[in-house]
Specification:
10 strands, 203 residues, 5 helices, Pnp Oxidase, Chain A, 2 domains, two-stranded parallel ribbon
């Protein structure tokens, strides 16, 4: 089934809310038989529909309306025709609302051995980029300098079942000795500028 995906991107399994339910108990589904028939060419494993990246809103509409009769694929191409790479993906309005509000965010960074490490952080937004301010000496800053891959999750303080998660990369490290970036974030969360300054501050 992975032959239709270019070699560069990571391959992920997306679970279904139906598989494993009472209507579709997992032991009753011949998964190995399906995989074997796809491999043999007896089943066609092509996506139901493929959207270009600028059609992502249409892909969401099709998915949420129940029109999709199979998996949907959104193709992301960066300059030069490469699939994958660093692309600034527009933050959906619902996710932007969560990040604009004083909701606490969980940041996942990677240690040198590749294991994840989690932090509770404040965030701000600059267009379609998420700002996280910290000291250059803190482990999360060291992690992100060494490996820019990060994960974020945010939960609505008023409704913990309303949440969003993001995956991305650190694309810029900005000096913030005077808290140009940190102060507006601090005011959002506490109502006051950040209480300290330092040459080690980064955003």
């Amino acid at each position: 089934m992975c032959r239709i995906v270019a070699a560069g991107p990571a391959r992920r399994f997306f679970g279904s809310f139906q598989v494993g339910s009472g209507a579709f108990p997992l032991p009753a589904i011949p998964l190995q038989d399906i995989v074997s028939k796809v491999e043999a060419g007896d089943f066609q494993a092509s996506p139901s529909r493929v959207f270009a990246f600028h059609q992502i809103a249409d892909a969401h509409r099709v998915m949420e309306s129940g029109e999709a009769l199979g998996k949907l694929v959104v193709s992301v191409t960066v300059p030069g025709g490469q699939v994958g790479g660093t692309v600034a993906i527009p933050i959906p309005d619902g996710v932007r609302e969560l990040l604009d509000a004083p909701n606490y965010v969980h940041l996942s960074t990677l240690r040198a051995d590749g294991t994840p490490r989690n932090w509770v952080v404040w965030v701000g937004l600059a267009g379609d980029h998420v700002l996280i301010c910290t000291s250059n000496t803190i482990w999360k800053a060291r992690d992100m300098r060494r490996d820019p891959r990060v994960g974020l999750s945010v939960t609505d303080l008023a409704n913990p079942y309303r949440m969003a998660s993001l995956q991305g990369r650190v694309v810029e490290i900005r000096p913030d000795e005077g808290c140009q970036y940190m102060d507006p974030i601090s005011i959002k969360y506490t109502g006051a500028p950040f209480p300290s300054r330092g040459p080690d501050f980064r955003c």
